[in-house]
Specification:
39% of the residues lie in helices and 20% in strands. With 182 residues, it is an alpha/beta fold. The protein folds into 2 domains: 1-33; 36-181, Rossmann fold (3-Layer(aba) Sandwich), CATH 3.40.50.2300.
């Protein structure tokens, strides 16, 4: 079977277009991958460099993951190896709507639950609970901290300082240097 020059050129253009589309799709998928290990390390640092009222630091340091998220396993692994604030052992659990959110020190809100940020904020009230959101921009909508990825593909975080004050939490200046204050 022989192709004319115009048919061959059209075929080559289609192959190149398909290759370019596949390349963009693969990069888009890779850009959407979340580095849960890096987020869990940040959450561990939050447990050490965010300061809770002394009366809340008894028993275990409790981290809750609101709903199902791959970060749960990473946090449980981290908790088995490390200690939290005041050298407390860390307990990580998946939490649901029925749980009392004020029993936790840190609550992680995955992207899949980000629409519920206002409800979670209301349930927590002014209790000293650090609400950490996976999705960028949620610190302006009720989360205390949210993660973001910079143009250089570096994981950073934003801290809502007025929310921190409302929750009676303080953040170490050294930790704050790693993120952005809003």
């Amino acid at each position: 079977m022989f192709y004319t020059a115009s048919q061959y050129n059209l075929f080559v253009k289609k192959v190149i277009l398909l290759w370019i589309m596949a390349w963009f799709c693969c990069n888009a998928v890779m850009a959407q991958d979340v580095d849960y290990r890096a987020q869990s390390l940040y959450i561990y640092k939050f447990s050490k460099y965010v300061f809770w009222p002394e009366e809340t630091l008894q028993g275990e340091f409790k981290i809750g993951v609101y709903g199902n998220s791959p970060i749960l396993e990473e946090l449980q692994l981290m908790a088995s190896l490390k200690k939290g604030a005041n050298d407390l052992s860390i307990r990580v659990t998946e939490i649901t709507e029925e749980d009392d959110l004020t029993d936790y020190h840190i609550i992680y809100i995955p992207s899949s639950k980000s629409r519920q940020i206002r409800d979670l904020t209301e349930k927590v009230g002014t209790s000293p609970v650090l609400l950490v959101a996976e999705r960028e921009g949620l610190a302006t909508k009720g989360a205390t901290i949210n993660f973001l990825i910079t143009e250089n593909m570096v994981l950073k975080f934003e801290v809502n300082m007025s929310k921190m004050a409302d929750q009676n939490l303080k953040i170490s200046p050294e930790l704050l240097k790693l993120g952005y204050e809003i």
